[in-house]
User: Fold Acyl-coenzyme A oxidase from Cinchona calisaya.
Amino acid sequence: MEGGVDYLADERKKAEFDVQQMKIVWAGSHHTFEISDRISKLVANDPAFSKDERTMLPRKELFKNTLRKASYAWKRINDLHLSEEEASQLRFYVDEPAFTDLHWGMFIPAIKGQGTDEQQKKWLPLAYKMQIIGCYAQTELGHGSNVQGLETTATFDPQTDEFVIHSPTLTSSKWWPGGLGKVSTHGVVYARLITDGQEHGIHGFIVQLRRLEDHRPLPGIIIGDIGMKFGNGAYNTMDNGVLRFDHVRIPRDQMLMRVSQVTRDGKVVQSDVPRQLVYGTMVYVRQTIVQDASCALSRAVCIATRYSAVRRQFGSHNGGPETQVIDYKTQQSRLFPLLASAYAFRFVGEWLKWLYTDVTQRLQANDFSTLPEAHACTAGLKSLTTSVTADGIEECRKLCGGHGYLCTSGLPELFAVYVPACTYEGDNIVLMLQVARILMKTVSQLGSGKLPVGTMAYMGRIEHLLQYRCNVQKAEDWLNPAIVLEAFEARAARMSVSCAKKLSKFANPEEGFAELSADLVEAVVAHCQLIVVSKFIEKLQQDIPGKGVKQQLKVLCGVYYLFLLHKHQGDFLATSCVTPKQASLANDQLRVLYSQVRPNAIALVDAFNYTDHFLGSILGRYDGNVYPKLYEAAWKDPLNDSVVPDGYHQYIRPLLKQQRSAKL
Ligand SMILES: CC/C=C\C/C=C\C/C=C\C/C=C\C/C=C\C/C=C\C=C\C(=O)SCCNC(=O)CCNC(=O)[C@H](O)C(C)(C)COP(=O)(O)OP(=O)(O)OC[C@H]1O[C@@H](n2cnc3c(N)ncnc32)[C@H](O)[C@@H]1OP(=O)(O)O
Ligand SMILES: Cc1cc2nc3c(=O)[nH]c(=O)nc-3n(C[C@H](O)[C@H](O)[C@H](O)COP(=O)(O)OP(=O)(O)OC[C@H]3O[C@@H](n4cnc5c(N)ncnc54)[C@H](O)[C@@H]3O)c2cc1C
Assistant:
């Protein structure tokens, strides 16, 4: 803090809860708090990880700088003997998308999830030591969402006991894989398996792409970067790549063979593992993306909240200070639901991590029963949380007025880095439609004796939910979690049943599904919001120590669900889950909750425990010393290196001269 002055000190004094305890709730445990606190400071205090000028660097310099940081991070990880958890925290706080994200986040998980024990034994030690660097090469120029439509082929040659990997068309070029463009030595490449002239669906293959000696592409491989992406700096630190194969040969044992095996004589043997496990890496990453959503959203909210307390506009009385913009009800009604959503996504992410760990343990014991639930939850929640977060970051930019548009606010880069999360790992609409299929299947099986399980279990009470009438009579009734849960369950169930009824009128169900897809997506949103609300409420049933901490979380939970109720009141009214009077009472209660958040707002964002380095925002500085730092930063812009700009003599002077002579 400059000169030790904390411009937000008065705000911090207003807090009605134990911030230190809230930091632990946010981190998930004492253990994770300790690690994230220590590692974030380690990164922040190391000048080698400085983020200055990232948005101004030309692509080549930017990329080289990322390579430098990634290699230095790896050195620190080894020198300090960091655990896997600490190393992943270090990469997170370095906060620069890099090839290492795909190496650790997709290449290694793909081998772990789809490789046999033998394959894991061979490849994982090399990958763990970064003696090879890998990417996840699935998407092609012509096909991304439709994985079954991929065109790359892997044809078994029984003569040589090899697969021949080939890109038969331009559209079969691999296109997008991160880390592929300039760095990866290997990739898990997804291709159509062909043996003896027969097609056997999409499978993953470990393919070496570059020579380990000099990094040149192996024969038959064309490889490069796909070009600049949205925003300055941002995701351009990543070498998303293009890759073509011209009959590239790999040994048979480089097909990932946990799901199916190809024998020496070219027979395809299915193991008892479901074929959907080929999609397992995506399930894993979607789960991590839900956790990341709370990080990205909380970061934007932290910046907007601190700045809203610093910024003053209008309302000065007798020459006194103007009103802090955070005190405007409109500002609160835009900001506080995002603050509440950040907490909500944190808790649903925590739960999803648990679900995924549980599914993984079951898969290891050959119990595949919970795989559809894992697919539905990761697909639906990935879509919901990334869409809200991307929109939320943009809303935070607007909440910061003009200064939010400056790169030094940190918000433009955060938005540019974050927004592809709505597309990668499955386009959000495509994933919602996957959940819609599962919802419709669940509804169609009601009454068959097969009880819905997991997050669909509420559908088992369909008779009750179809008859449900909300009995809220006064605004405070909306603070009762049981009432809220039933209202959200009834809305989701009724929207699904309504879609199912409409679907049943179509002779061809696929035609019906396509025709009703927009309605189906709305039903899925209602279902996913119910999951988030219910996991927030479950969190509050736990023992949460610390003065006032649980109370603050109750307030945030109320803000989260009442805001949703208000925003989607059309759904609640159309399905007769609430009356117009009850919807209006919900909004009254929401306003009361906003005023309870207000004194705690700064402390609630302090609880994220973000360093100024990680936030990368002058508007979000911990000390609130915004104006002098904005002023200082402006002078660092290269345009201000000279008082008279380059180009003056060439372009400005002749222009001015011409104007003068025209006047004369
Ligand atoms: C300044 C800096 C600032 C800030 C930084 C801040 C934040 C950063 C934030 C976040 C970063 C975090 C992470 C980054 C991570 C990654 C980004 C980088 C990489 C991205 C990589 C990729 O995108 S990889 C490619 C991903 N591709 C996809 O997701 C494709 C989507 N398509 C599909 O999944 C499938 O094709 C489909 C599911 C849509 C359809 O498949 P199909 O086979 O046709 O299936 P169906 O016939 O419909 O269904 C068959 C049955 O299978 C079931 N199913 C489908 N999928 C799955 C599955 N995954 N698991 C289990 N089961 C599945 C389906 O339900 C059907 O079941 P039935 O019972 O009905 O038969
Ligand atoms: C930053 C970034 C990083 C990436 N990293 C990787 C990587 O490391 N490895 C990798 O393999 N891939 C990667 N990808 C690719 C990514 O996974 C795909 O772009 C993504 O799966 C979406 O597929 P698509 O591009 O084919 O979109 P499309 O499917 O072409 O989507 C275009 C539009 O069509 C709509 N649409 C498509 N199908 C349907 C349907 N059935 N019903 C209704 N609407 C539909 C979509 O909603 C969307 O509006 C990355 C992408 C990005 C942007």
Remarks:
- The first strand starts at residue 134 and ends at 137.
